[in-house]
Amino acid sequence: MRLFLAVTVIFCASRVTFGLPPISKFLNGTDDGNIWVLLVAGSFGYFNYRHQADVCHAYQIFHQHGIPDENIVVMMYDDIAYNEENPDQGKIVNHVNGPNVYPGVPHDYTKEDVTPENFLKILQGQDMSGTGSGKVIKSGPNDYVFVNFADHGATNFVSFPDGELTAQQLNDAIKSMHANNQYKQMVVYIEACESGSMFYQKLAADINVYATTAANPDESSYACYYDSAVSTYVGDCYSVNWMENVDKVGTATETLEEQYKIVKQETTESHVMQYGDLNIDNEVLGKFMGSKNSELPLTNLELSPPVSKDAVPVGDVRISILAHKIYDSGCYWEKRKHEHKLMEELVLREKVRQTVEEIVHVAVGGMDDLKESIFSKPAKTTDFDCYTSAVRRFSEKCFKLSEVDLAMRLVYTLSNVCETGVGKLRVLSAIEQVC
User: Fold this and answer.
1) Residue among 152, 224, 324, 386 flagged as catalytic
2) CA angle 387-393-397, nearest 5°?
């Protein structure tokens, strides 16, 4: 039997459950390997509710399909279930009027432990003693790894509450795991804007890794399911599409390829992509998600009335939430409060745009003919050192990327400035001068 190491990256919390039989007992009755799962939600703040909801829902799928908690690692800031803005304390939903997906979710790594550095160590099975639960992916040559990440992203990186994980760091870690025989097969699902850039022309087809992403290298991903009961978006289109597919059909017969085609068709706002070893997508979902209860529906979503996904580009989520709140406001002063917050958000967005335009102007000097193309063309990064340094300096000096959505959407311009050949030092100097 071919086994698969499942790593789903989304940031949740940790709890170890003992006394369960080996996960291999759930994989078609064979004992030659285990499934490992890494789930990461890389954001924080109530307006980012949906990322932790995605991760918690994913945990319920893997757990209920027989993967024991000791084989599931969850990274999540864990500031949603009991957030003061949450009217249903202790509850997180991933669908309008959906079931609570928070109970039982391990609190392995939360708050300041949700970092790109810790993620890389956990994924590669390195010692995490003294941090969080200490659980890591202890996969071996016969094991399957599934990685799922839900968060914000931009060209060649995904965001964490404090810092960024670059495409090079992720792909280098995967290559190292392959060289060290730390998996038999690996699957990676990433929910983030421009998530295709994490693998496009980077993920080799001969290292037994298959990946799908919510968007191509150049476009936004989309939030969905605005829930007026909790006043925020509770899901992301790509994520809810693949998870609700599992909820409906189970894991016994559908293949990764069949699921990819369904999710690609249902995710109409962005282009769902696949990368790496496409032969892996012939395997059934159960090889990577567990096969216990494989034919049983796991939630009551199918009993919920159909609702509009109400999809919105990730960069417009804050504005859309505030617009909903203004519309739903029951009194004059509440409406005025939300209108004031909306005005502050619009002012901030304009400040971000002006700041980026000024950085570009300072960096390229009198090369006015370049400015239009810097803003109009998608990033095709080749100078990764310049771009990575610029992104980190911009986040440090101008706008913290994990907190300002529009800033994340505009950092592609820094890549385009680097590609003009002006040099890293000039780009960094422009950022320092403007910010």
Assistant:
1) 152
2) 145
